[in-house]
Specification:
Length: 302
């Protein structure tokens, strides 16, 4: 049993954030799983939530338990294939689909669907992430590359790390941008207070490069083509928010609530260009804009 005491300075902190600060030897996902399993008690109370705000002075008990290793499990669910050959496949990922299993997400993942569909994928990413070379946020839709072989995985990973892939997104952002084109180079780091967010306020963050071009304007919104030269967590989302133009519907980064019935943010991985692992031939794969995003553009934005 691990016993902790919340100080007066911890007042207002979420329980999960408090535990992340105090128990750095454990991953965020493991701590969140323990909370969900009822292995964390606050002032003797069971069934607390990760979002519980501490008042300061609470006695907190944590009962560590071993986590069952996660691995991909085949599930017969649909996969939208945009491109396929013997080395790789490009998938059109819908919004709401988690790429691989993690805290709170074990079933219905993209990886589980892929394992059922293709059987064997590259092992470079381990049992949890077979074939996965890069990822998209849960609510981001669009094209994602998956390696069938280890050699293809290593080739694609080298292209991503060497920044030779071309990654183009479509985004609707809040407000009217002053310029038709722009570049954002602010470094990106994990937000030390809200651990689910990233921030550009830490100069020691990792280098990031985002270029944008205006496609269409409305009085209070702007439609953009966005190219990223790096692949940082939440890169486009945090970069656009940093210049005062958060992605439409992205409440985590300060955007107002979207129109009723729209339960995602407007960010779509539209196009990716890369070299085929064996031949070196350049290929460009595009994912069409989902219907719900087309409807937003066709609506009366003001």
């Amino acid at each position: 049993m691990i016993e902790l005491e919340a100080e007066a300075s911890d007042a207002g902190k979420r329980l999960d954030h408090f535990l992340q600060d105090k128990l750095r030897e454990y991953s965020r996902s493991r701590l969140q799983d323990w909370i969900k399993q009822g292995k964390v008690r606050v002032a003797g109370l069971n069934g607390v939530k990760a979002s519980l705000e501490l008042r300061g002075g609470e006695h907190i008990e944590v009962e560590p338990v071993a986590m069952t290793p996660l691995k991909a499990e085949p599930e017969a669910l649909p996969v939208d294939i945009l491109y396929e050959d013997g080395d790789l496949v490009a998938i059109n990922k819908p919004s709401g689909l988690v790429v691989h299993a993690g805290a709170g997400h074990h079933d219905g993942t993209l990886v589980n669907r892929l394992v059922h569909r293709f059987g064997t994928l590259s092992n470079v990413g381990g049992d949890l992430r077979p074939g996965i070379v890069h990822r998209l946020d849960r609510e981001t839709s669009g094209v994602i590359l998956v390696a069938k072989t280890d050699a293809a995985h290593r080739s694609l990973a080298a292209q991503f790390s060497g920044r030779t892939t071309e990654k183009t997104y479509l985004a609707l952002v809040q407000g009217a941008l002053a310029q038709e084109t722009g570049r954002i180079t602010a470094p990106i780091a994990r937000d030390p207070v809200r651990r689910t967010r990233m921030t550009t306020r830490n100069p020691a963050g990792r280098t990031a490069l985002t270029d944008y071009r205006v496609l269409r304007r409305w009085p209070k919104h702007t439609y953009l083509e966005v190219r990223i030269g790096t692949g940082r967590t939440h890169q486009i989302r945090v970069h656009m928010a940093s210049i005062g133009h958060p992605v439409y519907g992205d409440k985590l980064y300060g955007a107002p609530a979207p129109a009723a019935g729209f339960d995602r943010f407007f960010l779509h991985a539209w196009r990716i260009g890369f070299a085929l692992p064996l031949s070196g031939e350049r290929v460009v794969v595009e994912a069409p804009l989902p219907l719900e995003l087309e409807q937003v553009l066709a609506g009366k934005l003001s």
